[in-house]
Amino acid sequence: MEFGKADPSQLASIDFRLPDDDSRTWNSLAQAKKHLRGLPRFGVGAPVWGVKDWIGKVYPTGTPSKDFLFHYSRQFNTIELNTTHYRTPDVETVARWREQTPDTFRFCVKFLQEISHRHPLGGRSALLNEFVSAIMGLEDRLGISFLQLPPHFEPRDLGELRKFLEQLPKGFKIAVEVRHPSFFSDHKLNQAYFDLLSEFHAHAVITDVAGRRDVLHLSLPTSKVLLRFIGNDLHATDYTRIKDWVERLRTWVTLGLTDVEFFVHQPEDRNAPDLIAFLIDEINTSRIASADGTSVLQLQKWQPMNQGEQLGFF
């Protein structure tokens, strides 16, 4: 991932501390807490499943590529599905994805680039309808979809985003990411943008990346969040940043957070499982309690494969 990439020699000098929550976050979580029962949905995963380096580690030795998703979905419970950014999947592909995964698994589908990165955003109704219809074939496996807007999308373009959101089916779960610096200038978030998300019950994408600390906002227009953590190949700062996120999420859960999708990116995909394992250990050790205090979150950690071993716990 090139967005926000920092020189490794500079990592030790970057201020990785999380900013304070803003009042929008407190209000959104407080509203959700009134109706919340039990623990939140907590997804932890990677942005890819087709990593050959995971064979013998995450996947059983000898796993063919056609079975990668099957084994991925029994080690992790969510995926940031980036393949859909480049083409709309056909009916057969979507059906196969659904059949290969357990009912607890969620696909967080990234919107087609032809929709998200072309002007006008809300002016491609036929293409949008085709794409949404295709991914809704995932049925109960479809999680929070993900609209990543291009760097040239500015606050003056919010009318396009409004038109886009108006065209989505009622109840369609979507999170939005913006990247233009003017949305975050002087660490002041663009209120019109977050107001628009709130109006349409759209969720915020939070991206934590070394070279663009300005985009690390902690403003939640809803009680759900899609978090993209961009690490640096297991640099020491990856671990301290994960610890900070677990503490913040623990606080948010007590305040009323209902859904988390946490995606761990690494420059080298082979390193992602190691940081995911650390993240899950930190979550389980922190004993994140439900907002009503009746239960404690414990996530299943992916199981390392021994020679010839098959997954047998599902």
Explain this structure:
- There is one protein chain.
- The chain has 314 residues and is α/β, with parallel strands linked by helices.
- The model has no long low-confidence stretch (mean pLDDT 94).
- It has an eight-stranded parallel sheet.
- The chain is built from nine helices and eight strands.
- It is globular and about 55 Å long.
- Helix 1 (23-33) packs across helix 8 and helix 8 (236-255) packs across helix 9.
- The longest helix is centred in the last third of the chain and has 20 residues, at 236-255.
- The protein is 30% helix and 13% strand.
- The chain has one domain: Alpha-Beta Barrel (TIM Barrel), CATH 3.20.20.410.
CATH class: Alpha Beta
Determine the mean pLDDT: 94
Tally of separate domains: 1
The outline comes out as: globular
Q: Can you tell me the CATH topology?
A: TIM Barrel
What's the architecture, going by CATH?
Alpha-Beta Barrel
Features:
about 325 residues; alpha/beta; TIM Barrel; 8 strands; about 30% helix
Summarize the structure in short:
By secondary structure, the protein is α/β, with parallel strands linked by helices. The protein has nine helices and eight strands.
